[in-house]
Specification:
The chain is built from no helices and 13 strands. It is an all-beta fold. Strands 6, 8, 11, 12 and 13 form a five-stranded mixed β-sheet that branches. A three-stranded antiparallel β-sheet has the order 1-4-5, with no helix packed on it.
Length: 162
């Protein structure tokens, strides 16, 4: 086959291979789109009609994060959630905390180890075969905890709690 002629529906731009058997298309809009090709075969003949294929262009996902945005230092069990039913969930904390559960799922459990603001938790995932363009960042203020010391006047036995 030679002399490939490709066309794409509105919102598409052929960015490579416009006269070859393979093309690369960049889509600027989402939804059902059409890719059409015609060619010349080895006998110099063209097909009776072009071949068309419908493709569905999905939107690039933008994850959201919900969860506590102000927490106490070293408090365990802080739960952060993003959209369900996606794939390849990746949670990250650049510094100041530890993901203690949920990596690879839509819910992460975190212990924040370092006070300050802002600490951050990030998430990314794949939706309908499309990866997020960038991780979503969620700011968290981690409040320093101060250990409580019993006043001497309480005269508690050693090992007793206040």
């Amino acid at each position: 086959m030679t002399n490939y002629t490709w066309t794409v529906s509105a919102g598409g731009s052929i960015t490579a291979g416009s006269t070859s058997e393979d093309i690369t298309v960049t889509w600027s809009t989402v939804g059902a789109k059409t890719v059409t090709v015609t060619y010349t075969d080895g006998n110099g003949c063209n097909p009776a009609s072009p071949t068309s294929k419908t493709v569905n262009v999905n939107p690039i996902p933008v994850p959201t994060i919900s969860g506590p945005n102000s927490v106490c230092e070293t408090k365990t069990g802080n739960i952060y959630t993003t959209e369900a039913s996606k794939t390849s969930y990746t949670w990250a904390i650049p510094a100041g905390g530890t993901i203690t559960g949920g990596q690879g799922t839509n819910t992460a459990t975190v212990t924040w180890n370092m006070p300050g603001a802002p600490q951050t938790i990030n998430v990314t995932y794949i939706s309908n075969g499309c990866p997020a363009a960038a991780p979503t960042v969620y700011d968290v203020t981690v409040v320093q905890t101060h250990p409580f010391k019993c006043p001497d006047k309480w005269n508690l036995e050693e090992g007793s709690d206040c």
